[in-house]
Write a structure and sequence with these properties.
This protein is an alpha/beta fold and 423 residues long. 25% of the residues lie in helices and 20% in strands. It folds into four domains: 3-116, Rossmann fold; 117-150; 165-278, Cobalt-precorrin-4 Transmethylase, domain 1, CATH 3.40.1010; 281-400, 2-Layer Sandwich (Methyltransferase, Cobalt-precorrin-4 Transmethylase, Domain 2). It has a five-stranded parallel β-sheet, sandwiched between helices. Strands 10-9-11-8-12 form a five-stranded parallel β-sheet, sandwiched between helices. Helix 3 (86-98) links the parallel strand 4 and strand 5 (102-105). It is elongated and about 90 Å long. The termini are far apart.
């Protein structure tokens, strides 16, 4: 049999009787696949593997503990041989052929009337691969195709109308490689993308031409599309039967108003899925070699968006404070922490455009950082890290690296274009 002799199709075996002859691991795998398809499975074999016995004991299939008989094929819709004995498999195949029943002969794929492909399921898509009778080759190809669908490299988007839905996808700090696999897959399935200014913007260029992108990005103090309008857009587009992805920077539930959007969708009867993202509060400092916690330096951290909340966080160098989008209020924030008792020598790091090629790092102290940032023209998007953990950064000046913490030798700076400003 050559691959050209095969007519690819799919069998619907729901509620139909099928026969598996053999009791080993191969028979168990084939029986499990047939059960997943809804078939009524009977296994004929003198002995059964533990996996088959488990299925039989659970009442999922019938096991006949005896040798095969020609009459076992009677009334079946499909037969799978898996005895490992060529003569027995050949007899089963011949009996099935005589009754015009499709049979997969596991011992001789060349003479088999049917082949079992390597199968994977991604969402509601089932992938079946035949590779000229070479099962390992088929499995390798199946896995490659499944991975490409999982990661969004192949289009998984539906082309026929279906019920609408909304997915709130955290896109991470901006590097396209830091979105989750689930988020990337949903983006590839989207009919409409409601996009923020931050996040993995380059992925928008990879969308199909007919995918609509609705820009709703905000900048500090400038919200051209108010939150109420964003909520309305999500529900309205889903009501039209579209699969909507709300692509957000970082994580949708970390200062991203994702909770409000999810609640509004549910209140209006729209199915909503939340896909966590790599929050910039942690990932952007990490891009500059700054851990938000570190043994001997900090056991906890707080994330805030402005100086008003700083009175409620511990004013200690061993408790990391992370300011998001706080460049415009940096001077006030530093003054607030100083008034609360945080020493002026406390290290401070600012990471602009974290994880992107034009990332820049500015490091100083609580007493100097506002002047340094102003002189350097520091601008959002940026993450500000305040606390002793900044000492760990490979961008920190040498006199910051004291003996009060233990770490390995610092790595080389991430990019040559990064700038370090020291007091």
């Amino acid at each position: 049999m050559a691959i050209q002799d095969i007519y690819p199709t799919a069998l619907r075996l729901l509620g139909r009787p099928v026969l598996v002859v053999g009791g080993g691991p191969v028979a168990a795998r084939r029986a499990k696949g047939l059960l997943d398809a809804g078939a009524v499975v009977t296994v004929v074999a003198p002995l059964a593997s533990p996996a088959l016995l488990e299925l039989a004991d659970a009442g999922l299939l019938a096991w006949e503990p005896r040798p095969y008989r020609t009459s076992d094929v009677d009334g079946t819709w499909f037969v799978q041989t898996a005895t490992g004995v060529s003569a027995v498999d050949a007899q089963v195949s011949a009996d099935a052929e005589a009754q015009r029943v499709w049979c997969v002969n596991a011992s001789d794929h060349e003479s088999s009337a049917a082949w079992t492909p390597a199968v994977a399921v991604v969402d509601d898509v089932k992938i079946a691969v035949n590779a000229g009778g070479d099962p390992r080759r088929a499995m390798a190809l199946r896995d490659a195709v499944a991975t490409a669908l999982e990661t969004g490299d192949l289009p998984l988007r539906r082309r026929r109308a279906s019920s609408g839905s909304v997915a709130l996808v955290g896109g991470g700090p901006g590097d396209t490689g830091l979105i989750t696999v689930r988020g990337r897959r949903l983006l590839g399935q989207a009919d409409v993308v409601v996009a923020d200014r931050l996040g993995p913007r380059d992925l928008l260029h990879e969308l199909a031409p007919d995918v609509r992108v609705i820009e709703v990005g905000k900048t500090p103090g400038h919200h051209p599309v108010p939150q109420s309008e964003i909520n309305r857009i999500l529900v309205e587009e889903a009501a039209r039967g579209h699969r909507v992805v709300r692509l957000k920077g970082g994580d949708p539930y970390v200062l991203g108003r994702g909770g409000e959007e999810a609640e509004f969708c549910r209140q209006n009867g729209v199915e909503v899925e939340v896909v966590p993202g790599v929050t910039s509060a942690i990932s952007v400092p990490a891009a500059a070699g700054i851990p938000v916690t570190h043994r001997g330096l900090a056991k906890g951290f707080s994330v805030v968006t402005g100086h008003e909340e700083l009175s409620e966080v511990p004013a200690r160098a061993d408790h990391t404070v992370i300011l998001l989008m706080g460049v415009g209020q940096l001077r006030d924030s530093a003054a607030s922490l100083a008034r609360a008792g945080l020493p002026a020598w406390t290290p401070v790091g600012i990471v602009e455009n974290g994880d992107l090629p034009h990332q820049r790092v500015t490091i100083g102290t609580l007493g100097t950082i506002a002047d340094q940032a102003e002189a350097a023209g520091v601008a959002n998007p940026a993450v500000i890290v305040i606390g002793d953990v900044v000492r760990v950064s490979p961008f920190a000046p040498s006199h910051f690296r004291t003996a009060d913490y233990s770490t390995t030798s610092p790595n080389a700076p991430r990019t040559a274009s990064s700038r370090v400003l020291t007091p």
